[in-house]
């Protein structure tokens, strides 16, 4: 009887060992985070790290991820920090607002219930917006903001630009995961789904983009 008990204790020990190692290695990874000027909440740092690693251009760009309650109509939102808008483009800093809890027609969504690969796609898309903002002057950004809130065509263009940046930075699969999560999620309302379908690239369009970016790499 005791030998069986011993055997089980040993087995349990063996099973727990990799878990301890895994914990240790992620800790080390966090400590050696090679990005500077980033503020990331603990609950999403892994996903932010993976998404950021696809954008070496943003290595030193100041970006703060901040939870916010009730962002209208979306999970996340990227924008330049207003205070630094007129700074030199290189020193400009950005905010990515994230809805910790997200309500669509009385149905509450929680960030922790979103799968990692989907979250990485979402963050990758927001980083795509920042890539787009980086090339714009302050005046252009203000004009961009005005057009974004007044023109549906303009929203479509901006969202497609962000998706395209993400796909070209190797996050195509994650962007597709994000789309499928929205489209297939039974809890999301049809009006939200059709808004997404209207304004964003479809999974099929993203596949075309992924194939194109592969062909380009092949041509080089
Ligand atoms: Zn967007």
From TrEMBL:
Residues 1-22 form the signal peptide. Keywords: Signal. This is Secreted protein. It comes from Christiangramia echinicola.
């Amino acid at each position: 009887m005791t030998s069986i008990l011993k055997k089980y204790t040993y087995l349990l020990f063996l099973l727990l060992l990799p878990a301890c190692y895994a914990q240790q290695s992620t800790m080390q990874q966090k400590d050696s985070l090679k990005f500077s000027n980033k503020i990331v909440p603990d609950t999403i740092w892994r996903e932010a790290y993976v998404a950021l690693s696809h954008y070496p251009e943003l290595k030193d760009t100041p970006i703060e991820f901040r939870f916010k309650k009730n962002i209208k109509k979306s999970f996340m939102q990227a924008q330049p920090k207003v205070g630094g808008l007129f700074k030199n483009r290189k020193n400009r800093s950005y905010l990515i607002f994230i809805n910790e809890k997200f309500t669509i027609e009385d149905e509450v969504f929680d960030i922790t219930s979103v799968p990692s690969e989907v979250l990485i796609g979402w963050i990758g898309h927001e980083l795509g917006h920042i890539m787009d903002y980086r090339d714009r002057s302050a005046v252009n950004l203000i004009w961009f903001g005005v057009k974004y809130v007044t023109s549906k065509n303009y929203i479509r263009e901006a969202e497609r630009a962000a998706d395209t940046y993400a796909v070209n930075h190797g996050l195509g699969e994650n962007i597709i995961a994000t789309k499928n999560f929205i489209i297939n999620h039974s809890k999301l309302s049809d009006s939200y789904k059709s808004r997404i379908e209207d304004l964003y690239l479809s999974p099929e369009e993203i596949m075309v983009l992924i194939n194109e970016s592969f062909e380009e790499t092949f041509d080089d």
